[in-house]
Design goal:
The chain is mainly alpha-helical. It is built from 16 helices and no strands. The chain is globular and about 60 Å long. It comes from Natronospira elongata. It is found in: Cell inner membrane. Keywords: Antiport, Cell membrane, Ion transport, Membrane, Transmembrane, Transmembrane helix, Transport.
Length: 444
């Protein structure tokens, strides 16, 4: 799908990305509200929810790859003018989640009590964290389905449906938190377990909202009309499994990174926690643009235009570099001012100042690599993308981070320099893969 000049194409990509960005901002605001409400219960409750949220992301990583596969396949059909078949991959993705979700959640549910002490040995955290995580685990099937719907709405340029559902879920989650954590309206005060139950219920309701919207807006596209063909299911699995492995690798690598920094010192862990959270928040525009790029590339390939698909990758990269460059300016120029809102200890804050400037520099590089990574995923080239990301993480960055940080005594700054080098190399590899055009021959 061609959209005129470079400026017009950039405006079109930004227009499509705005609802996705709004949804991501909504998710982050919800996380902050959730943390604030649980934080009133004490440090052990906060630690249990923090660890649980991270653990649930690891546990559900394999089903989250379904959303990427649905997006790549549905976008191809939209670009090819096959409007009556765009929901076919969505049907297949929902079926896979319906089967795989319980197969994952049931064993994990029973494995949590003996495994949780490996995350944290504090008896109070274990007491609160085990039921919280078990409650969240139950909703893995619904979470996978929600990501499948997200991939579909993004693929057909209807991200506003995803945004509407997410806001509905968040409003319900906040209300249920109020009721179930603190015991209002006659409900028992379940504390941390109530927070987990609220999230699980909100996730399930979100799936029902998605189904309702899809029946209204995707019925003519084949939603729930016929059983998905086996070849569609096989192709969906071929794309989704590598991406699920990549998601699992990404989440697990953060555990290892914090362990490495923990070998340096407690101040360094505190500083790193703030730096990573700021970075993850700041790259949200690049993530939103990346998801939009995946749809635009898939649609172009469906229309039979490899040239147009290739142009979309670079057009959105230019847009992302401008946006992230502007967002990075305060990190370069006023790092201490930014950090003072999060770190109140002078010595810890001073440790983070130079790494914060590096976050600003390498955030732009991260945007470059993130856009092209999503462009490759939009083309259905999930296997090469996964091999690149996982090998660079586990064979490159993490061993080097341990060597230069605690190993050679380089401290937090050395770890952050290693991370910046890793982001740069990854962006270069994704650029090479994008320019080779082998992704154009992937069948999705």
């Amino acid at each position: 799908m061609s959209v005129g000049s470079r400026r017009q194409r950039g405006q079109h990509a930004l227009f499509l990305a705005l609802p996705v960005l709004a949804a991501m901002v909504s998710q982050n605001v919800m996380n902050l509200v959730d943390t604030a409400m649980v934080g009133t219960l004490g440090d052990a409750a906060l630690a249990a929810v923090g660890l649980g949220g991270f653990a649930i992301f690891m546990c559900q990583a394999l089903v989250l790859g379904v959303g990427t596969a649905v997006q790549a396949m549905a976008a191809r059909r939209k670009g090819a003018g096959q409007g009556g078949q765009t929901a076919e991959p969505l049907n297949a993705g929902l079926l896979i989640c319906l089967v795989a979700g319980p197969l994952l959640s049931l064993p994990l549910f029973f494995a949590i009590p003996p495994a949780y002490p490996w995350l944290n040995a504090d008896p109070e955290v274990i007491e609160k964290g085990v039921p919280y995580l078990q409650t969240r685990i139950i909703a893995i099937t619904f979470m996978g389905m929600n990501w499948a719907f997200r991939g579909y709405w993004n693929a057909v340029d209807m991200a506003r449906m995803y945004l509407f559902t997410l806001v509905t879920m968040h409003v319900l989650n906040i209300f249920l938190n109020y009721v179930l954590i603190f015991g209002h309206f006659g409900a028992p005060a379940l504390g941390v377990t109530g927070a987990g139950l609220a999230s699980a219920i909100a996730t399930a309701v979100g799936t029902l909202v998605h189904v309702y919207l899809a029946r209204r807006h995707a019925g003519s596209a084949g939603f729930f009309r016929t059983r998905p063909p086996m070849d569609v299911i096989r192709r969906l699995l071929r794309i989704s499994l590598p991406n699920g492995v990549q998601q699992l690798s990404f989440s697990t690598s953060f555990v290892v990174l914090f362990w490495i920094i923990g070998q340096i010192g407690t101040r360094e862990v505190a500083a790193a926690s703030v730096l990573i959270n700021i970075m993850l928040l700041a790259v949200l525009p690049a993530m939103a643009l990346g998801l939009t790029t995946a749809s635009l590339v898939g649609q172009s390939l469906g229309a039979g235009s490899v040239r147009d698909a290739h142009r979309w990758g670079w057009d959105v990269v230019r847009l992302a570099l401008v946006m992230l460059g502007i967002l990075a300016l305060p990190m370069w120029l006023l790092p201490e001012l930014l950090l003072s809102g999060f770190i109140h200890d002078d010595e810890t804050r001073s440790l983070a100042i130079t790494p914060m400037r590096l976050v600003g520099v390498f955030m732009v590089v991260e945007a470059f690599g993130m856009i092209l990574m999503h462009a490759l995923l939009g083309a259905g080239d999930a296997r090469r993308t996964m091999l690149t990301a996982v090998s660079l993480q586990w064979l490159g960055f993490l061993p080097i981070a341990w060597l230069v940080g605690p190993g050679l005594g380089g401290g937090l700054l050395a770890v952050w320099l290693a991370q910046g080098a890793y982001r740069l190399v990854q962006a270069m590899v994704f650029t090479w893969l994008w320019q080779r055009l082998k992704w154009a021959r992937v069948k999705a």
